[in-house]
Specification:
By secondary structure, the chain is α+β, with helices and mostly antiparallel strands. Helices cover 15% and strands 29% of the residues. The protein has one domain. The chain is globular, with a radius of gyration of 18 Å. The protein starts with 16 loop residues before the first strand and ends in a 5-residue tail after the last helix.
Length: 251
């Protein structure tokens, strides 16, 4: 695995901590300190309404017997508390060519993670992977420059493991709307094995106010993550951009 100790020098950036309290003024949850960054490659801001997700203490587990194969849905909310963030009124999103997205607290900053349907270089289906923005055609994570998925920071890896163990979703059989449905016969109502929106606040790019935006999916991802790379391309600029962000993590 490739680490960020790769010889690239971080660009100049101004990164103050931004307090962002949960809506409940009586909450005893600690103030979340987010990330703001602005440099020649782009900017990062705390997304609108970003705060720790207000999760209940339920654990949901279901083995789904789908015609295309069995799948597991597992959402351990007590383990996700303090990690999962709510932004723009959602806790989990679908965008970037059918990927699922969450925004997580990583030390003192917020970092988005994605899950995709098909495996690719260094990517396993149903696992969560950090990323640092979306160009509209490419997920910014540095994976094009290395053989395997890169290693960014120990705290990112720790949060990634929490998500992989406690937010397991049947993305390979999940359709639009975050549901798992299938037909059992003509004229018979479709069976529904799972509905993501019943467990987490779920929002989709294709059903959002950004459907009429000229940048559509890209604008949606920027709004829910706060990550806006503007001059990032595979190679040195990608790693300088990621280095600027990762270097601000404090635990």
């Amino acid at each position: 695995m490739m680490s960020l100790n790769n010889g690239f020098r971080a660009g100049r950036s101004l990164i103050p901590d931004i307090p962002n309290k949960r809506p409940d003024a009586n909450s005893d949850v600690a103030v979340f300190k987010g990330l703001q960054l602005r440099n020649d490659l782009g900017q990062v801001a705390l997304p609108l309404g970003c705060h720790e997700a207000l999760l209940d203490k339920k654990v949901f587990a279901k083995h789904i017997k789908h015609p295309d194969g069995a799948a597991l849905a597992y959402i351990n909310k007590p383990k996700l508390q303090g990690v999962l963030l709510e932004t723009n009124g959602g806790e989990i999103f679908r965008a970037m060519r059918d990927r699922l997205i969450v925004v997580a607290r990583v030390g003192n900053i917020h970092v988005p993670f994605y899950m995709k349907k098909e495996g690719s270089k260094g990517v396993q289906v149903s696992n969560w992977y950090p990323f640092f923005g979306y160009t509209g055609s490419e997920v910014v994570d540095g994976s094009k420059d290395v053989i395997d998925k890169p290693s960014y920071h120990g705290e990112i890896s720790r949060v990634q493991e929490i998500l992989n163990k406690n937010l397991i979703l049947p993305i390979d059989i999940m359709g639009s709307g975050g549901t798992v449905d299938w037909s059992i016969g003509e004229g018979i109502p479709r069976m529904r094995g799972f509905d993501l929106g019943l467990h987490l606040k779920f929002k989709e790019s294709e059903r959002s106010e950004f459907t009429k935006h000229p940048d559509g999916d890209k604008a949606f991802v920027e709004a829910v993550t706060g990550y806006m790379p503007r001059a990032v391309a595979p190679g040195e600029t990608t790693w300088r951009w990621i280095s600027d962000i990762v270097s601000q993590i404090r635990t």
